[in-house]
Specification:
single chain; alpha+beta
């Protein structure tokens, strides 16, 4: 039968405490600032588009230079406004002054013959 040596046990305990203490002391700490997360719902409503005008190039009237139209309300500041003139065609960026919208459609150049529909996307 083995006899327990009190000093050996005490030494082993002291060594374990020293190792654990050193490990804890050398662990880096992190600082996490305040954050937010949330969940909510809101109504998604569309815009009514009116007074659509396709402005043709003066020297090459087959080319469309801009598309202009009016909305029933002003999009919130910073909204994304885009138009597409053909299914699977290019998307063009628009700008607005209040509810009046102008879309430059020259890069790539939109043409009357290729314009088959007007798709308007506005996202806040």
């Amino acid at each position: 039968m083995m006899r327990s040596n009190g000093r050996a046990w005490l030494g082993a305990t002291a060594l374990a405490a020293a190792v654990l203490g050193a490990t804890y002391a050398s662990t880096a700490s992190n600082t996490v600032g305040a954050t937010q997360a949330g969940d909510g719902t809101g109504t998604i409503s569309g815009f009514v588009v009116s007074s659509v005008k396709y402005n043709l190039n003066a020297s090459s009237p087959n080319n469309i230079d801009t598309v202009t139209f009016n909305l029933d309300s002003t999009p919130p500041s910073g909204s994304t406004l885009k138009v597409q003139l053909a299914s699977a065609g290019s998307w063009y960026t628009c700008t607005n002054t209040a509810a009046a919208v102008t879309c430059t459609v020259t890069s790539p150049q939109a043409t009357v013959s290729a314009a088959t529909n007007l798709r308007v996307v506005i996202a806040q």
